[in-house]
Amino acid sequence: MTPLDATSVPTAELDTKRERLLTILGAMPGVAVAFSGGIDSTVVAKAACVALGERAIAVTADSPSVARAELDDARRLAAIIGIRHEIVQTAEFDNPDYLRNDGSRCYHCKSELYSTVERLLPRLGVPILVSGANLDDQGDYRPGLTAAAEHHVRHPLQEAGFTKADVRALAHAWGLPTWDKPASPCLSSRLAPGVAVTPERTQRIEEAEKHLRSLGLRECRVRYHEGDLARIEVPLAELARFTAEPVREELLQRFLALGFQFVTLDLAGFRSGSLNELVPLEVRVRYAGN
Questions:
Q1: Do 139 and 11 lie in a common domain?
Q2: Peptide bond before 156: cis, by omega within 30 degrees of 0?
Q3: pLDDT tens for each residue of 112-136
Q4: pTM of this prediction?
Q5: Looking at the structure, do residues 66 and 17 belong to the same domain, yes or no?
Q6: Whose CB among 21, 178, 263, 290 lies 3.0–4.6 Å from 160's, allowing a Cys bridge?
Q7: Nearest Cα to 87, choosing from 129, 37, 135?
Q8: How far from 27 is each of 88, 142, 162, 232, CA to CA, in Å?
Q9: Interatomic CA distance for residues 87 and 61, integer angstroms
Q10: CA-CA distances (angstroms) from residue 75 to 36, 100, 129?
């Protein structure tokens, strides 16, 4: 996204939505923001801090599914915003339904997160849990939103009418350093449905993507398929560079050293959510319409 994209939302419209967001949050007695450090939850954390001050707290989950760089980003952003910040250990890796990875993994992950934070609310001194979901998240397959509904989680961005473009525009207007940060779902989301989630596999993915970023990529994914196969997604403009020597051979040797048996480069290029195509239809139907 370019600065032009960030300012494409008309100023008057953005001002109206910003005030609506602050009003919605300001009417709450206190909130815990499910804070991943992504752009959406960062904007909600900033808005909550502005509207509620000490009655707002950002809560970040830590587990083997969270990249260390993302955890460091969350700490840094909370400090920049000035919001109280707490990191909690979540235990989704103790749940066989999560590890099974049948397409409902995100539901079990969010259920664990929201249950964990709910138990902490009395100690944190706030009664309401809020997320960073925006209007563009209202898709046809959203297991996490099903879990949120079950736990009565509020979505201030949706309530205030924010799209993803609005979120980035407000983050840019507020001077948040990650206004153009690419989406970075959890490491477990890289595992194809049917491939069991393990800490060893998520660590392997983390190291593989760290290597890709060391080569200058901002957006990339390492998809983990059956048979220890790595399917690498990079922007289309970068495909030629990654098939040319010596990059190709160095990449192959690095991935083999990490424990992958097969290494492939996806000719379709980088695209978010490509593994959703493999989710069984019955699972997609179960979590549709939320």
A1: yes
A2: no
A3: 999 999 999 999 999 999 999 999 9
A4: 0.92
A5: yes
A6: 21
A7: 37
A8: 26, 28, 18, 45
A9: 6
A10: 10, 31, 19
